[in-house]
Structure formats: C-alpha cells, structure tokens
Amino acid sequence: MVWEELQVWTEFVFSHLMIINLVLAVIIIFFQRKEPQSVWTWLLLLYFIPILGFIFYLLLGTDMHKKRMFRIKEIEDNINEAIRKQEYWLQSREWGGKSPEIEEYSDLVMYNLGVSGAVLTNDNDVTVFTDGNEKFDALIADMEQAKEYIHAQYYIIKNDVLFQRIKEVLVRKAAQGVEIRILYDGMGGRFVKKSCWKELNSHGIKTSEFFPAWLRRLHLRINYRNHRKIVVIDGKIGYVGGFNIGKEYIGLEERFGYWRDTHLRITGSAVASLGLRFALDWNYASKENLFLSDKFMYHGAVVSKQHCDVQIVSSGPDSRYCNIRDNYLRMIGKAKKCIYIQTPYFIPDEAILSALMIAVHSGIDVNVMIPCKPDHPFVYWATYSYIGDLVMEGAKCYTYNNGFLHAKGMVVDDKVFCYGTANMDIRSFALNFEVNAVVYNEEMARKMRGIFEEDLKVSRQITKNVYMGRSLLIRFKEQVCRLLSPLL
Question: Is the N or the C terminus of the chain less surrounded, counting Cβ atoms within 10 Å?
C-alpha cells in the first residue's frame, strides 16, 4: 500500500515537473531579492537537473522566512544611542587623543559604526595566536581564573580530546559558582550527542543550540549558520577568530596535518562588544534575556599597554548590509601600498574581485594566500579559479604548504587589519553569521604582516606559468565549480 502511494506521488511529481519548475522560477525571480548571477545559476540548475535542482533549492536557496526568523535579533535603543553619540564625537573635535590610524581611517570607522553598530574603543591589548595548542592553552588558563562567568560560542564543537580538556575546566568552575553558557550551531555541533549536553546541564552549565535541526540530526538547511567563535570571560577577556573546538585544530587530524589559523585575545573595552554579540545570539537561541543584568558587560578593570583602537564588526542574514564585506571593500579602496589576505575559501563577489584588480593595476602590492589542499573540494576549485584571475592580473598569490590554512583576514598598509571568523566568500558575506575585529594600530598591523611573511617560507607562489600549466582535469574542475560558486 505504501509503495503504491509512493508510486502515485512519484508519477504526480514527474507529470507536473514543468509546472513545479515554473512556479519555483517565478518565486526565485519575483519574490526573492537575489543577485542576477545567483538567479541565473538557480534557473540553469532547475532546467538541467529538475529534481535535484528543486531539492538543492530547498536546502540552499530559499530565504522566504528570513526576516521573520531573525526579527528578534535587533539591537535595543540604548545601544543605538551610544552609537549616535560616538558618531558625533568622531565628526567633531570633542574626542581628544585620536591616533594617527584613526585620523587616516576615520571614514572606515564611521562606516562600521553607522552601518553595523561597531563602537570604537581605544584602550585594548591584542594578542595574536596562530597555533591551536597555544590558543587553547591560553584560553583554558583564562577560564581557570574566571570568577563570575564564562560565555563560549563556537560554530563547530566535537566531543574529542580537546573538548574533554575544556569540559573538565568548565565543570570545575561551575562547581565554584561561575556561570557558564555554551552556544553552538545546530549543524556545527552535530558531532556532540545530546547526552553530553545533558551531562553539562546536570553540572549547572547552560547550553543552547543555534538554528537546530528540524528532525534530530537531519539538517535540511545549510544557510544561516552561526559561524562565530567568541569567548568572553568575566567581561574582561575576549577571544575571537578562526579556531573551532576539535582535535584537527590542534594538529591531531592526519588528513589536515598542521592547522594554521589566526585567533585574537583581547582585553579592554572591546570585550564589551564581544559580550554584546554573544548576548544577542544567546538571547535569540535560548530566549534568556541577558540584558536584564549588567553583570555580563565589561567592567573596565584591565589596564591596557598597547592602546589598540578596535571595532568589533558583525554581519549576517539579519543585517541589511553585508557589513564585513563592505568593510573589506573600504579597506581595499583606501590601500596605498600593500594588501595581505589570508583565507581558506576565496569566492569573492564581483565588487571584491574588481576592487582587488583595481588595486593591482594601481600599483598596490596585492598578496593572497590560500591552502594547498581542499577540505571542501567544490569550494577549493572555485577558489583556485578566482585566484587565477588575480594571478593573471599581476597579484601575488600563494598556497600554504605546511598543513591547512584556515586564517581569515586582511592587513592593509601596515596600519590596519581585520581578522575573525569570516571567509573571503559569498557565504560568509551574506548567508552566515560572522564577527571580525578591526584593529587600527601600526605596531600590531606590522606584526600581522610579519606573520604573513613567515608563512611565505612554507608557501608556494602561483605564478602565471604555474597557473597556465595546470592540467585539463583541474581546468574542468575549476569551470564546473565556478559555475556553482554563487551557491557555495
């Protein structure tokens, strides 16, 4: 009986396939505001592989309920008031002590402030980690010193040796009365069984899942993932960057080898912005309003030595603009001497690609570094295709050959850098929730450039000859994956 009903439904779908495709095409064209390139890609996919194209669109393409889904994630009036006040200070001469970097990049500061609510703070110390073991050793040491609370948010959490180390500390701190909250993405956290979260809950640790699966572990939606990695400890110490929680991030996965990433440890007033970002995401996922208590905000007890100017810029499908993408665009546009980019995935939209090509032709030293091996093959070969465009225009592009490169960010003119969770791709720009730190400090920017140059020692340059000499198979992979790049 069930088999007969299935046959009836199958016959119905096939007999009405043209009508279904037509309706879906109308929805794509008239009811969703998508880029023309994306629209044509979906229409071609529906035309050539109608059944699979229909399924792929349900998984990746539709965003009919986006506004309704994220309406709750709005910043409150008192935050907007603080933003307006700082805009006034920046535009006037009432805010003394501006650094030379802020004077030069005041328009970038104003953009980030006005569009994404990224308040500028100038009393921060920033420590850079490029090795997973060093980062997590420092994080665990900071957690051990927590007195009031630990807020941790990661895209991927795997219940392996690294998480066990962290879990032991969290359980011990919870027993000491420290409030602990863990926020994980529904897809990235699928590696951890529900029993593990329940065990943590039994110790008084609060956990919440962002955008959970509809049916247990069955994730029918790939878009709108919370890709942020944030830790805030007592409102005094903040972490943001590319490392997730899993053994591969500390070099214990043979497939990837050494994991090269970038993570920032921040002390100072910028920690309040990270705390706010966590609170907004936590409030949405758990329905617990952390704004009812001022306990979870920055208390200003850390004395800064570096005095770095920092903005925390967030973006996501709940934002009107592509905040991080546009921040990158403005940074590229203001470059006078050099640009250094590291990213595991390089699938830029037309604006970013054109801006980089204009920079190359303007005599600016443009450098881009990507991994030498794929963790997502389709994305990697699309990346290689776009890298080829830059190489042929005269940019210096490299593959990192000492393991897997997962660092995400940009340094401009040894004066400003932006690193965090956002890849240089369309998915990070528009479909995922991301957070980056923009640091205006010449000493730190030079340090970031120095790290890039150290990575060059274990990298290989993709010259024009190297790129033109790629095999026919690689050329085929590039073309196919590039056609699908708006969907990746």
Answer: N
Q: Which of 197-211, 294-308, 317-331 has the lowest mean pLDDT?
A: 294-308
**Comparison of pLDDT for 119 and 482, the residue scoring more:** 119
Please give the model's pTM, rounded to 2 decimal places. Answer: 0.84
Residue-averaged pLDDT of the chain? 85
Q: Can you tell me which residue has the tokens 């970013």?
A: 352
User: 361-372 burial string, b = 16+ CB within 10 Å, else e?
Assistant: eeebebbbbbbb
Report, as residue numbers or ranges, the catalytic residues.
227, 229, 234, 406, 408, 413
> CA–CA separation, 128 vs 16, rounded Å?
57
Q: Is 131 exposed, middle or buried (0-12, 13-18, 19+ CB in 10 A)?
A: middle
User: Do residues 405 and 260 make contact, with C-beta atoms less than 8 angstroms apart?
Assistant: yes
The answer to whether 158 and 245 have CB atoms below 8 angstroms apart is: yes
Gyration radius of the chain's alpha carbons: 23
Beta strands in 304-458 (DSSP E): 308-315, 338-342, 346-347, 365-371, 396-400, 404-405, 409-412, 416-420, 424-425, 434-440
CB 227 within 8 A of CB 434: yes
Concatenated DSSP letters for 355-382?
HHHHHHHTT-EEEEEEESS-SSHHHHHH
Provide the residue type at 47 as one letter.
Y
Non-local (6+) Cβ contacts of 313 within 8 A are 112, 116, 118, 323, 324, 327, 418, 420, 435, 436, 437, 438
In the chain the domains, ranked by start, together with CATH numbers, are 2-62 (no CATH), 124-309 (3.30.870.10), 323-487 (3.30.870.10)
Count of Cβ atoms closer than 10 Å to residue 304 Cβ: 15
What DSSP state is assigned to residue 393?
H
Phi, psi of 56 (to 5 degrees): -60, -40
| Contact by Cβ (8 Å): 409, 418 | yes
* Distance in angstroms (rounded) separating the CA atoms of residues 156 and 346: 21
